[in-house]
Please model this.
Amino acid sequence: MQANIQKIVVLGTGGTIAGESESADEGLSYKAAQRGIGDLLKSAISTKLPWPEAMSVCQFEAEQVAQLDSKDMDFETWTLMAKRCDHWLAQDDVVALVVTHGTDTLEETAYFLSQVIEHSKPIVLTCAMRPANFKDADGPQNLRDALVVAASTKGPGVWLVAAGEIHHSEFVQKVHPTRLNAFDSGETGAAGSVQNDKVQWFENFQKPLPNLRLHVAHLPLAAQWPWVEIVMNHVNAGHQHADALVNAGVQGLVIAGTGNGSVSSKMKESLVRAQIAKVQIRLSSRCNQGAVIPTSSHVFDAKGALSPAKTRVALLLDIMSERQSH
Ligand code: SIN
Model:
């Protein structure tokens, strides 16, 4: 019945899931972002397998928001993507969104969306490690799984579905450059799994509370976003990197510290100078798991267990939010 129809909107942004290689045997050398989202959706839903009962009331609609390799993801595309998400989620008949995305920067986009969108409905990102014309392409199954998860997930949240696993945007990271299950959620672990169209949520997974840093409606034009960079501590780390960035006008620096957020003495001196010059500094760890635990030797702000890349997203949004409150 028309009244029961639930719409899932699928937004395409490119990536390997939309990629094509020269032959069906070539899975590593290919061009990302070649196929349109309409075609990807058709491949995912045209399998002979019947949909689960709960999906019989679902209708799908595709929209191409961008078509790029996610290494080239930018603030303009993020803003457009967030606005389209906001638009679709506000429609009464839309129950969830699925976003197809390249794997390389997916975790940053997922985290960004989670911090700027305020709705009671889920956003499920998905991707692929093999191009669309590869003989064993993983994209169609990942997209089908994402649609099943989107239809069954109630409440807000931004998720990644890939290789049969469901990950939360707060914890997920790409941890492998080539294997099919390239994503991991570290100590927290995956939130659930999806196999044969059946979704299982893991009992010990605790969904973090929604956290809105800056509403999508308040995102400034891309050219007005602050300049925030990541500097990494490593053997023989000096002061030149941070000094050069500060001299060039950087507004925020995220430290990918070693271990529990340590930085070399020389680098620390340059970062203290940067802080005095009103550059905002955030401390994170280059370790893949665990949070930086603040101690008396820490002189920079460390918040939570976010990776350096996600800490940068948080700092970008916090700087923009602070500017607007002044
Ligand atoms: C991309 O991130 O767009 C290319 C790589 C991938 O999707 O696996």
